[in-house]
Amino acid sequence: MQPDSETQLLTIQFEWNGVLKSVSSSLIGVSPEFEVAIYTLCYFVGGEENHVEIGPYPVNIKCYRLGDSIGSAFPVAEC
Asked: Which Pfam family, giving just one, matches this sequence (predicted)?
């Protein structure tokens, strides 16, 4: 699967339960299967920092381990 022209990387700032999250990123326009696949690949073959290009966007996929599982995985926009 390839991202298409409708794919976007959105960087947002929000507050959750009174705590400000300074920066967060989310992939918009990709399938859940694509997101699970990219995070799984980064978990198995990468480290915490995985620099990839998704469509026209340079992205760092952060992947943190929790024992033998994925603790957290998310995209970070690179400028």
From this structure: XendoU
Q: Which residue has the tokens 């990839």?
A: 52
Which sequence spans correspond to the domains of the chain?
8-77
pLDDT tens digits, residue range 11-42?
888 888 999 887 778 888 888 899 899 999 99
Q: For the residues of 35-63, what is the DSSP string, one character each?
A: HHHHHHHHHHH--SEEEEEETTEEEEEEE
Q: Which residues contact 55 (CB under 8 A, 6 or more apart)?
A: 2, 3, 4, 5, 7
- Find out whether 16 and 64 touch, Cβ atoms under 8 Å: no
